[in-house]
Amino acid sequence: MNPNLNLFQDISRDVTRDLPGTPARNPSINRRTLLRGTGACAVALTGLTGLTGLTRPAHAATVGSPAPALSLPGLDGSTVDLAATPAFKGKVVLVDFWASWCGPCRQSFPWMNLMQQRHGPRGLQIVAVNVDRERADADAFLRQFPSTFRIAFDATGDTPRRWGARAMPTSVLVGADGRVLMQHEGFRPADQAMLESAITQAVDRIAR
């Protein structure tokens, strides 16, 4: 197995808000933490046995398996649907789960803009799924960090749970055949070369 595809679990310190879809009343089991090793915001993993918001469902985005369904409202009111939207057919799709309170997302958005510009003509489509409970929080973030790629919204947290996202940001690379190629938690400048290499390899396969 490629060690670059492993999910990192280096938990360091607490931050203050709740992920959508997780109980919000027990601070001992529901604190976000900053994953120092990956630059990711996540819910603390201790004391979470049986919590569906953090356990990986059987149909999660597992490498080699078909990507879970994704159908969500988009920024312009249209529906972003991986299976039904023509723009995604035969394309490599990078699905990124993000939130306005996620510090590393402020770095990942400019990078994803660059990736969409560089690899979009070769068959890459980026979809960034926001998980904020309040749409206004997401809109404020997007005014500060505009995107050139598609934005979708899931205030319920259902989609990131079904895709097995346990940290913000989490990126899932889906090949043109609809199968998961990679899942990566967090975002650091040091990760950029590895992530772009995975994208390049995926879009190269389209032309074969």
Describe the protein's architecture and organization.
This protein has 208 residues and is of the alpha+beta class. It has a single domain (60-206), classed as Glutaredoxin, CATH 3.40.30.10. It is built from 4 helices and 11 strands; from the N terminus they run ββββββαβαβαβββα. The strands form 3 sheets. It has a 5-stranded mixed sheet. Strands 1-2-3-9 form a 4-stranded antiparallel sheet, with no helix packed on it. Strands 4-5 form a two-stranded antiparallel ribbon. Strand 2 and strand 3 form a beta hairpin.
Explain briefly what this protein structure is.
This protein is an alpha+beta fold. The chain is built from 4 helices and 11 strands, in the order E-E-E-E-E-E-H-E-H-E-H-E-E-E-H.
Keywords for this entry:
single chain; five-stranded mixed β-sheet; four-stranded antiparallel β-sheet; 24% strand; globular
Task: Note the beta-strand portion.
Answer: 15-25%
CATH-defined architecture: 3-Layer(aba) Sandwich
Average pLDDT, all residues: 79
Q: Compute the gyration radius: what is it?
A: 16 Å
Treating each run of at least 4 consecutive H or I residues as one helix, how many helices?
Answer: 4
**How far from one another are the termini?**
24 Å
Task: Please name the CATH topology.
Answer: Glutaredoxin
Shape: globular
| Biggest sheet strand line-up | 8-7-6-10-11
> What kind of sheet is the major sheet?
5 strands, mixed
**Helix fraction by DSSP (H/I, runs of at least 4):** 10-25%
In CATH terms, the superfamily is Glutaredoxin
CATH class (first level) name: Alpha Beta
Following the backbone from N to C, one meets helices and strands in this order, namely: EEEEEEHEHEHEEEH
Per DSSP E runs of 2 or more residues, the count of β-strands stands at 11
Task: Tally the structural domains.
Answer: 1
Unreliable segments of 5+ consecutive residues: 1-38, 43-55
